[in-house]
Amino acid sequence: MLGLTDTHHGYLRAVLRYAKEHHWHLTADMIFTGKIPVGWRGDGIISFIGYRNDLADFILSSGLPAVEISFLRPDLPLPKVGGNNRQIGQLAAQHFLERRFRHFAWAPFMDNSANEERRHAFEETISTHGFSCHVLPPMDVVKNTSNHRDWAEYRKRLVKELKRLPKPLAIFCHSDYVAFDVVNACADIGLPVPEAVAVMGVDNDILFCESAAVPLSSVCHDIEGMAYRAAALLDRLMAGGKAPKKNLSLPPRGVVTRRSTDILAVENLEVSRALRFISDEFHNPLLSVSSVVNATKLSRRSIEMGFRTELNRSINDEILRVRLEQVRTRLSTTTLPVSEIAHATGFSSPNYLYRIFRETIGMTPKDYRQNAGR
Question: Which of 105, 142, 252, 351 could pair with 154 as two cysteines, CB 3.0-4.6 Å apart?
C-alpha cells in the first residue's frame, strides 16, 4: 500500500485511520520526500497527483489498482473520489446573500477545473439575485523572469483591486490558503474584516482558519470523508472488485462561520455596531435588547427602526438568529452534547434550545446533526 500525496493533511489522516482499521501496511515515503519510490512493489495506490506528469506515468505504468483523490486530472483513466465543487460555490454564495451583501469578488488560486466549477456556481447563484462578480488576480499566475511566482507583484495587483472595488465587499476564495492571504492584504491597507471586506475560504483547515489575523469562515470540504471513501474503494479494487462507472462526488458539510464573514452588510453604522455587539456577545445568557441598545448611540426606538429598515426583523429576532446559526455550526462540525452547545451559545437551558430549535428549524437538534452527517 502506497499513499501518494503532498497535499492537505486531512487526506493522510483519513487514509491512516482506514489503514489501521483494516490492517494495511502503509508506505508513505512521498509525503516526506516528494520523490517517486522507484522499485517499490505493493498492492495498490492512493494518490493526489495534481499536475505531476511523472507521478501519473508511474502510477499508470505500475499496473496496480489505484484511486485518485481529486478531479483535477480528467485525462487520467483512474477511479476518482472528490468534492462537489458546484455545491461548495453555491453554499458560499448563499452565505453571503443571507448577510445582505451586494458586491462580490472571487479570489482564485490557479486556473483548473475545481477553480472554474466553484467560481461558476458562485456567480450563477448570486446572478439569480441580480448581482455580478469581480475576479481578483490568481495567486500562481504572476511570474518573474525566472518563472517563479512574483509575490510582490501579486500583492500589488491584489491591493489595487481591493482598494478599487465597492464596499462592503464579499470575497469567496478558492481555499483557506488564498483567504488567509486576502485577509493579510486587507490588514496591510487598513481595510477592516469583515466590516469592509468579508472573506471566506474552502476546506476549513484549522491551521489557517484559526491562525489568520481575523479567524476565517470556510466551506467545510469533506476532505477526510473523501480520503476514507477512496481507501474503501481501493480495498474493493484490490479484492478484485470493479471500479465504479462514475466518479464519486461528496457534498460539502456546510459553512463554518467565524469572524471573517460574521456580519450583515448594512449601511446604517449604528445598526452595524449593534450587529457586531450581538456577534461578540451571543454566548452571554444575559444578552438582551437593552444591552444591544446600550452598545449604540441611538435610542431604543431609533435602533429598533434601523433594524426593521435594514433587516426587516427585530433586535430580539437577530439575537435568536445568530444563536441558532452557532448551534447549527456546532451540531454539524462537532460531537459536543446538546447541553454543552446550549451553554456555549447563550441559551438558558437545553430544553429551551430544543423547543426553539424545533419551532424554527423544523426538526430536533439530534435529527439536524444526523442529517448533516449524512
Answer: 142
